[in-house]
Amino acid sequence: MKKMWISVHDTVDGSKLRKLARMAGCPKGEALGVLSAIWLWGAKNADQSGRIRDSTEEDIALVALPFLTKGIDSYEFVEKMIEAGWIERVDGELYFHDWEDWQAPWYKYQREKERDTKRRRETRKAKRDADGSGSTGTMNIEQKQAPVSAPEPRELEQTPKKQKSPAKPKPEKEHYGDFVTLTEEEYGRLVERYGEAATKRMIEILDNYKGSTGKKYASDYRTILNWVWERVRDENPRLIKAQAPQPKIAGDLSEIIPEEWRTGRGG
Q1: pTM assigned to the model
Q2: What is the DSSP string of 137-164?
Q3: Which of 67, 88, 139, 225 is the most exposed place for a label (fewest CB within 10 A)?
Q4: Whose CA is closest to 96, among 49, 59, 36?
Q5: Separation CA 56–CA 249 (nearest Å)
């Protein structure tokens, strides 16, 4: 049976939790317990963006019902979660607010587990190939003892080393915020792809995040393409001009996507 778990940071005990408890008319500890139960259910029923797939408020209320004190209506509790900002309605769908940030350790664990599985599979395949898997596994004795012929004199001659061409100078990056640097070309690409208003908002989000966490990236441009633009899309879809779906950049994203986004905030 596949194991599921969620992260409940100590910062969850903040103003939003107190607001939920006050609005729902229950102790803060009970509100935290019901929230945790709903999040655990969400680990199986929400995607990484927090979108709760094929579910309604009634479905969530049924999850909350067994954990609420008698007399507290579970449907009203879910409505209070929406009012307090724990769940959002976006274009007719329900989303867990900041789900990817709260549950970043779970998704990191899944990515690392998939990488380890793939690495072990490739290691086994390479070992089978090296052992001659698929053949009889034996080798002709004459092939084993065949002497290695001496190289021709020309093979011993040293090939003249090619002269390295001078490295092209990298384009200089400019500050577009206190902590965000981009080349003029990178900034132009972002404006062309998302529009100037959306680009400025992306830079603002990344600048605030880097400034508050001390996080550093090898490329702010690649970071914007990997996750910052999605934050702007979720925050204000109309800000981004119409375009084709953006492809994810290939490679290991664990060094690019932040693992602790806003975990220092209170609720």
Answers
A1: 0.39
A2: S---HHHHHPPPPPPPHHHHSPPPPPPP
A3: 139
A4: 49
A5: 33
> What CA dihedral angle connects 42, 85, 233 and 226, to 10 degrees?
-60
Cα Rg, the chain, nearest whole Å: 27
Q: pLDDT tens-digit profile of 111-138?
A: 676 777 888 888 888 888 888 754 444 4
C-beta neighbour count of 226 within 10 angstroms = 19
Beta-bridge mates of residue 52: 46
b/e per residue, 46-67, with b = 16+ CB within 10 A? beeebbbeebebeebbebbeeb
The two tokens of residue 55 are 């579910």
CA–CA separation, 125 and 211 (whole Å): 45
pLDDT exceeds 50 at position 263: no
Q: Are 52 and 95 in contact (CB under 8 A)?
A: yes
What pLDDT digit, counting tens, does each position of 78-116 carry? 999 999 888 998 888 999 887 777 566 656 666 676 777
Contact 88, 51 (CB under 8 A): no
Task: Decide if 138 contacts 87 (C-beta within 8 A).
Answer: no
As a whole number of angstroms, the distance between CA 80 and CA 262 comes to 22
Q: Is the dihedral of CA 46, 50, 55, 58 positive or negative?
A: positive
pLDDT in the model for residue 108? 67
Contact indicator for 87, 95 with CB cutoff of 8 Å: yes
